[in-house]
Amino acid sequence: MRVIHSLLHTDDLAELVEREYAVAAPVTVSLLNRGFNDTYLVTDVEGGRRVLRVYNREKYWIRSESDLRFELDLLEHLAAAGLGVIRPYRRTAGDRLGRLTAPEGERCFALFTYAPGTPSHECTPTAGQWREFGAGIARMHLATDSFRTRHDRYHLDESILVERPL
After folding, report:
1. What pairing do the DSSP bridges indicate for beta strands 105-113 and 49-55?
2. What percent of the chain lies above the pLDDT cut of 90?
3. Region 1-20 average pLDDT
4. Of 19, 66, 123, 166, which is the most buried if we count CB atoms within 10 A?
5. Mean pLDDT throughout 97-103?
């Protein structure tokens, strides 16, 4: 039987985080969301929180690992510009992106800072919060003007947005 997408055991992911990152062990891992990627809450022994993303395979718009590295570089750039975005952690090996073996094959993973707060779908933002959100988006767009990376990113075109999904 072939596997398209497996859900990885949280105990195994806890061992992975302890092995790959400088975190206060032991850590506990719990599933936050299963979607385009699998997202897990990582809590260290001191109560510190982080988020582990295990990227899914077989997303037709992701051509290579370069697409993922582009995202990690962009987040670092935006954080350095003072925007309140999550930041990827470096693994003890030095790289921000790791690989693990899953039943469906190799999957990439990355650990991020935790973003506290209430998801927007669980509250009704005020007019002031919407203005602040819009101003933050404007700051993000301005900050991306100076963004440079050696990694390529997919381009949203007719093929990705219309033809492939159909």
Report:
1. antiparallel
2. 68
3. 94
4. 66
5. 95
Task: For residues 70 and 129, give the distance between their C-alpha atoms in angstroms, rounded to a whole number.
Answer: 29
Three-state DSSP string of 64-121:
CHHHHHHHHHHHHHHHHCCCCCCCECCCCCCCCCEEEEECCEEEEEEEEECCCCCCHH
- How much is the CA Rg of the chain, to the nearest whole Å? 17
Q: Is 126 helix (H, G, I), strand (E, B) or coil?
A: coil
* Tokens linked to 49: 């929180």
For 109-163, how does the pLDDT look when each residue is reduced to its tens digit (9 = 90+)? 999 999 988 877 888 889 999 999 999 999 999 999 999 988 888 777 787 778 8
**pLDDT above 90 for 11:** yes
Task: Tell me what pLDDT residue 64 has.
Answer: 81
Residue 147 CA: distances (Å) to CA of 53, 77, 79: 23, 7, 12
Q: What's the CA gap between 13 and 26, in Å, rounded?
A: 12
Phi, psi of 143 (to 5 degrees): -65, -30
CA distance 153 to 74: 11
Nearest residue to 13 (alpha-carbon basis) of 81, 103, 88, 109: 109
Q: How far apart are CA 68 and CA 62, in angstroms?
A: 8
